[in-house]
Write a structure and sequence with these properties.
The complex is a heterotrimer of chains A (548), B (315) and C (273).
Chain A: E1 5-14, E2 17-27, E3 32-36, H1 43-51, E4 58-66, E5 69-70, H2 76-82, E6 87-90, H3 94-97, H4 104-114, H5 120-133, H6 152-164, E7 170-174, H7 182-199, E8 202-207, H8 210-216, E9 219-224, E10 227-233, H9 234-239, H10 244-253, E11 271-283, H11 289-294, E12 299-311, E13 315-319, H12 326-333, E14 341-346, H13 356-363, E15 366-369, H14 383-388, H15 399-412, H16 429-441, E16 447-451, H17 459-476, E17 479-484, H18 487-493, E18 496-501, E19 504-510, H19 511-516, H20 521-529, H21 533-547
Parallel strand pairs in A: 3-8, 3-9, 6-7, 7-8, 13-17, 13-18, 15-16, 16-17
Antiparallel strand pairs in A: 1-2, 1-4, 4-5, 9-10, 11-12, 11-14, 18-19
Chain B: H1 2-29, H2 34-39, H3 45-55, H4 61-74, H5 87-122, H6 127-141, H7 144-158, H8 174-208, H9 211-219, H10 223-261, H11 266-275, H12 279-307, H13 309-314
Chain C: H1 3-27, H2 60-96, H3 98-112, H4 116-127, H5 131-157, H6 161-168, H7 173-209, H8 221-228, H9 237-264, H10 266-272
Helix pairs in contact in C: 1-2, 1-9, 2-3, 2-5, 2-7, 2-8, 3-5, 4-5, 5-7, 6-7, 7-8, 7-9, 8-9
Classes of the chains: A alpha/beta (548), B mainly alpha (315), C mainly alpha (273).
Amino acid sequence: MSPLLELDRVNLSIGSVPILTDLSLTIRTGEVLGLVGESGSGKSLTALSILRLLPHGSRLSGAIRLEGRDLVGLSEAQMCAIRGNAISMVFQEPMTALNPVKTIGAQVAESLVVHGKEDRANSAREAGRLLERVGLSGDRVSPQRYPHELSGGQRQRVVIAMAMACRPRLIIADEPTTALDVTIQAQILDLLKEIVREDRLSLLLISHDLAVVADMADRVMILKDGREVESGPTTALFRGFRAPYSRALMAASAHVPDRLATRVQPQTRNTLLEVNRLVVDYKLSGQGLMAQLTGRQGRLRAVSDVSFTVGAGESVGLVGESGCGKSTLARTILGLQSPNGGHIRLDGEDPHGLTGQALRDLRRKVQVVFQDPYGSFDPRQTVARAIAEPLYLLPELSGTEKRLRVSEALVSVGLTPKDGGKYPHEFSGGQRQRIAIARALVTRPRLIVADEPVSALDVSIRAQILDLFARLQDQYGLSYLFISHDLSVVRAITDTVLVMNAGEIVERGATGAVFDAPQHPYTRLLVASAPKLDAVLAARATREQVNA
Amino acid sequence: MAHFLIRRLISLGLTLLLAALVVFVVLEVLPGDPARLMLGLEAREDTVQALREQMGLNRPVIERFFVWLGGLATGDLGVSYTYSVPVRELVAARLPVTLPLALMALTLAVVLALPAGVWAASRRGQTTDTGLMALTQVGIAIPNFWFAMLLVYVFAVTLRLVPSGGFPGWQAGPGAALTALMLPAIALALPQAAILTRVMRSALIDTLGEDYIRTARAKGLSQRAALWGHALRNALIPVLTILGLQFAFLITGTIIIENVFYLPGIGRLIFQAITQRDLIVVKSVVVLLVGLVILVTFLVDIAYALVDPRLRRKA
Amino acid sequence: MTRAHTSFVIGAVISGLVALSAAVSLVWTPHAIDTLNVAAKLQGPSAAHLLGTDQYGRDLLSMLMVGARTSIAVALVAVGIGLGVGLPLGLLAARRGGILDEAVMRFNDLVFAFPALLSAVLITALMGPGAFNAILAIGIFNIPVFARVARGAALALSSREYLMAARVAGKGEGRVTLEHILPNIASLLIVQASIQFSLGILAEAGLSYVGLGAQPPLTSWGRMLNEAQTMMAFAPQLALYPGLAIIITVIGLNLLGDGLRDLTDPRLRRRTA
């Protein structure tokens, strides 16, 4: 069978920077090809090369053949007739992929009108049908709605409806679920599977997530620095990677750091942090002057009656999806937000009841590491100044002592004291996260609140940072409150876990036990939705045996 | 949308009230004795006393404010001290010059600038774009009244194509009246158009970089179709903001430029009133103009909501 | 050299020259301008009077230099007023939020309804004409401009995690604002200041032209245009020079602002880095 799409020794460079080197791949009709790589591997630009939607200054050579016809030489007008028609695309960021001033129905209908599939009158009806097919039935989500009225998952459904409008031969999905919560991810992946099967179309699925690709793809190609590392049928490939890079990637994605803390009996730990019946409300923003004066503004209960403890040297995971209140809980523990009910005891004292030196003394015991390795540093401060900032809590230290503390912190996260003179933008994402950890260590805290600290990192870097967290815990006897949406990360680094949904803790217990045998329906849904490589591969093997 | 409209209307009323209060405080409370301020220190006490009577200055301040507000609401703006004519009649005689001039200039600026901005944005980086941008750079820097003087010198004094100033009145026929307003309108419009062109261009360039434009292109829309179908309406949002702000400048520009062309508009009325210290006229005319600016800001807000569905809900 | 550099350098050179000639005029001008010399009126350019003389026989070049001083002083103080009041207001609104934010925004709306000319009309009616009116009127209008820019920029930063990290380090709201927000919005404020400075020069010219600004014997570019108005038919050069001075200065300031904006735009900076 001749391939539907064939890339033949494609080279791409932007300016003088080579992006893709001699890349060849084929996709057959009805086939799902998974393209896996870390950031900078060129996987997204591969997609944009196929559609010829490259940035200015790009040079593309080689052949990209769709059913034998080379796209590289086609005129812009000819490409317009192919985009959205024979080949369509689903992007990563559903929040910004839709035009905010047009209704979703109109945006889906436009795909049909552009390629002359329907006239204007019929296109609206057909758009309604398409939206229905991706799960947005008209009685619940009307085509007259605007994108901002929809959730992220719903918007991604709209993008998919647009992509399938003209019954394309190939859909390219570039990290289609990366921006979504794990339960929504599972739904969107199911939808893509269903469409591929029913319409017998091909899918090029681009992802950084091995488990997602192993679940979805018939064949997989691993990409690094714009070159193919290796490729093959999914089961065979995952059974025995040949290339060292693939093996390393595989190992990193399943990496569990070695922790001494796991060998401590939980009963023997002293309580460090106690959260008791905590309630935190949020004022809804966007309220007018009148509403504020009369006090009739909306309130949202972000954290509802939450109680738990963190023991000294213990690592507690806090799992939940976006908007569940986990970040508000973290802010309250850090003393950045006042509770509306209940209380917090850190080392026996209430941070919201103290002021002055007593509060500073308490604050140095809890520090924080944030998610975004780019946003967590003031771009105008040197690394040393950024790390020294929490030393504001220790006014008794002399200048020399402070400098010494900064150097120590840098060394303990695997950097050198000399790095302190540089600026944050001179470091990679992983290194910046090390610097963030150094900043948290500099006051010699007892508890570190880590809010999605590895979510923005590639898997290989993620493994290194998790190792660092584990080593520091053993070294300094630190406690962690580890907040993440990623179950595998939480499983790798925590002893106990709290599962949070809609402001409440719905389940708690030893991490392994909760994930192996979840009790609460929400935890079950969460665990079932999270893609797990082993499980996916096992299921795939059984399926292939049955078919064979 | 109804909720949004009500909220905006309340805010409109509040701003109008506050603006009137500011004008009232500056002209009637701060001077201590407005009648003395109007007549000067050398005026005789009984003349001043008579004016105090006429202006109702013997009554309490609060009462005066509300009487004045009531007058504003019903169109009774008092009687000019120097002209001894109701201020309403003075304004009614001058508005038919100022308003058409401002509207002509605004229309001209928009008609020139929006297409020019779109044109430049779609040719970003090319010579035509760079040239147009250099031209707008100069246009922004030209004081409109100086440009008006230049136009008078070239077209009226040297070439004698149009009269150098004055206004025949609408009763002389729309042709003659429009001719008299043409040069002032051009002088007002071109610098405004320069600003607007730049705003339109950069807004469009910004929106062309948005994700949803890439989505539209991936659907099969050409660059051109994506620009007209998706980018333009989003780009209009910042353009509307500037347009609203520009209206205030346009009103003041009109007032200044009436001086160059000896047009009997609101501007002449204000300056004469100031020279003659006719605070009654100054007070009412300033409040009218400020009210006009506030009203236009309100209309721009409504236009926003029409362009951007996100704003309709947020309220 | 990139385009941003070119704009910046040309803008800086023009603005510098104008500022320099204004400064020099404090100690020296080619001719004194406070004495009238009707015998030497309306001369063309000559070695003695490089740009000629006006209807009172004053040296135009000297007038331009002294006028630059007034125009610059008015615009500069007006920017100072706007920045001095607007920046704290904007920062306060952004950081405190709630009713205070709402109140600052309504205040902005109100002040925006009073363009400099109308404020000047009110102030002149109250206090009589003078350059001070122009400063005050332009300065008042600058307040909401800077408040809005500062508020917007501070809000854009408000979700940055380094602000939260500073709070965790025990630093109070005020200290975080001074140490982290102000330095990071400074470039935006400087760019806005250069824009308001050039708008201030235009506004001063307009106000002085209609007699609401600088009064004789004080001269300014707008004042010169006012005096040139009646001479337009037979001595258009009297209007030409101050007009060109305004245009060149404003272009210089705008280029300076554009250049600064592009040079400090992190999006552009990252590309060149």
